[in-house]
Structure prediction request, 953 residues.
Amino acid sequence: MSATTYAWLVIAFPLAGSIVIALGWRSLPGRTAGWIGSAAIGLAFLNAIAALVQLQDKPAGARHLQSSLWDYVSTVGINAKLGILVDPLSVFMILVVSGVSFLIHVYSVAYMDSDRGYRRYFSYLNFFVFSMLLLVLAGNFVLLIVGWAFVGFASYALISFWYRRRTATYAGIKAFVINVVGDVGLVLAAILLQRETGSLEFAGVFSRAPHVFDRNEWLIVAICLLILVGAFAKSAQIPLHTWLPDAMEGPTPVSALIHAATMVTAGVYLIARAHPLFELAPTAADISAAIGALTLLFAASVALVVTDLKRIIAYSTISQIGYMIMGVSIAAYSAGLFHLMTHAFFKALMFMTAGSVIAAMAGEQNIDRISGMRRALPFTFRAFLFAALALAAFPGFAGYFSKDEILGFAAERGGGYWIFFAVGTAGAVMTGVYAFRMIFRCFAGAPNDEALELERGELPHGEHFNPMTGEKEDTDVGFPGPEHHIAERERPMAVPMLLLALLSLGGGLVQIPGATHVVEHFLDPSFTDSPLAQISTSSGIEALALIAGAAASLTGIGIAYLFWVRNPGSSLRLAARLRGLHAFLAHKWYFDELYDVVFVRPARTLGQVASNVFERSVVQGLVGGTAFAVRVGNSIVRVVQSGILRYYALLLLTGVSALALYFLAVSR
Amino acid sequence: MDIVWYLVLSALIFCIGALGVLTRRSPLVILISLELMLNGGNLALAAFARMTGTSDGQVFALIVMIVAAAEVVVGLGLIVAMYRSRLPMDVDEMSELKG
Amino acid sequence: MFWIAALMAVGGAAGVVLQRNPFYSVLSLVVHLISLAVLFLLLRAEFLAAAQVIVYAGAVMVLYVFVVAYVGGLEDPLTEPNPALRTAAPLFAGALLIELGIAIVGSGLKAIDTHGPHLGAGFGSPSEIGALFLTKFLFPFEVVSLLLLVAAVGAVALARPAASADRELARDRVSAGMSASSQSGD
Prediction:
């Protein structure tokens, strides 16, 4: 079978899994739904590997396959097909997506076990993977937008999974609204591209773009900015980032899958895919890189201060995606995508371990209350350590090679791009600090009550409550289930974590600068048309990047050690001294408050005006008035319905006479 | 006789029947007046059959007669039902269609 | 001959409408029907006349007589208590008559001023009617038979005695206010 057939199967299996679980949910006891979902993704992963093999069989120049099932629209100049594009970039993405998704599905089989909405969860999760794969394999803008929208919906459904939790539903709405803003940008960009280049297919658009647009012409810059709006909404960059921390209201595996490894990388993928357009509009590319850099710093700074475990990891995600966006915007495509891959490994692992820790704390997520879990959760601790080392780009781990490759490329391009190098390095220091802040706060130090309970062999149980607001909850459908599952006790949780830990350690070996270049060579055929991608970093710059990266990471870890192990309490003293700065960071640079004033309050006022004034007088008046008129007319006409038979007969006769009269008159 | 007199006669019978339907209160008499109207129609049909020389009008009149018979059956059944439920045999009292 | 039959027909009709006792109305109708049969004969519709006498005057009138005997003749006042109806009804009936008259007299059908065409011997005979029924009017024939079937079934359904439990209920309902008249008393 050809690569495209395998690609169609890759999309088909998760969809089938989702439908099967959704339709047969009543007859799937226990963990069956979970295994069905995992099997679906596992099959997708196998098919992705098969597609990879088939693709690599072809000569390098011909690794650009398209396949279409049928035409959606074929009319005035618009030709939209249900078509996929199988090339190294998309195969790379489907491997990462299906591989990591599979591991997270297996993890969820155990993690979500006692939840009443277990089957709904797996149906949604499979649907999400299906839509993400669709997005990545899409061969034209129409299917891309379809996948984009589906992913947005799946994200909403999964964030609001515990739908009786009000904070969760609000978070879901917030995510969806911001997503829609991005959708609008993307659709506008597609419309403009269709108008200018006459095609919606990637191949057509990208080949014609250089002939249609002048370099840095305002129109192509505008199109690229619109694409960026879409990318930033999905990838949670400034200013469309506020939904991601709130999205932590969803179950932890959801955070792992959607908000670490896959959905948020859609923006990175989009920029990489649309790279011909961005290379035609360097202004837009520079803006994108600048925003990526700014987001990187912003998120890292906030992660130093927030106290909810999952939200620290969320801000870390935003920051790391800032790296990726910066990377693909400055044309370091393979580096950016390589970082995407390694980040998927260690960030998913980090969320998984966080889930285990939170379960051990019976639902508590505030790191102020977690400490000393080292002996109580040995496996989780070691996994978290691997993830944190990879995140902090400790030399030898996966994150080290990928992050520093991006920085090296920035340095290579020289000139103003040294700023990105500097920003990236500063961010690396902060990354080291907050990554190990988590490790030292949660695992080092004296064991807290829950840790002591665990060391004794009992799993802590507490009241069920909302981690953010403290409200009491029950464990019926719509809220989390009564049981908590930790990795030490559940094999389906431990095995994926182990695999990801190994990948976090060894995943970087495939792309060691100067030595192995597996990822780069694999992705080359997708970027042959890009002059900038051909830049290869000189060994001097590479060495500089590696050394700087190692130094930054070790510095960060050292600072964290000082603050939280050597001098416990010094962070609090520092916060008290820099109270203003601390408040600024703790309030996430006041973005939410800004949006509240600029968008939410006017909208609410408008709604109230509409409801009180317009609705009451105009609409009620119209509708009520019509009803009143009808009623009046009715009471007039009702007189005829007297119920007396002979009246009816009389009316009948009158009618007949009138008719006869009419016909007589007419015939005269 | 000229056909026209037959037609005048049928019109007269029809209108007398209509008068009866409108004026009387007993449902039985109303039904009978209805029969009158039908007969008037039959007469007109037979006259026209004679006029055109085809028997189609007579066939039509026969069918009208059959329909009248069916209608009588149902109507009388209704009247019997009314009587059995001790309802007053007065059309004006049966005003439940009042809207 | 025509005038005698015509006068009797009109007289019978008037009798139907003007008699107070329903029994007398039925008898007037019988007279009316027989005179109408005579008129049919005059119009060379022999089969029709025979059918009129046998079916109409015979079966249908007998039915009426039975029902009148069962139900009893209530004498209802002739004068209409409702003033509106009292004036309106004759008015409209008269209007209808006048219209029909105008229609007939002023009609463009020249043939009505004649005796009608010269007819062959078989006109109006049963064989001719029968042949027409079975060829040109086959469909109405079948439909009408179906109609009769339906009417028969309906009559049986209407005349069914109520189940004993329902009869109690019917009596209660009737004494309560006669609301569900259509359900009880089948």
About this structure: Chain B has a mean pLDDT of 84. The interface with chain A takes residues 18, 21-23, 25, 30, 91-92, 94-99 of chain B (CB under 8 Å). The CA atoms of residues 67 and 80 of chain B lie 20 Å apart. The two ends of chain B are 50 Å apart (CA to CA).
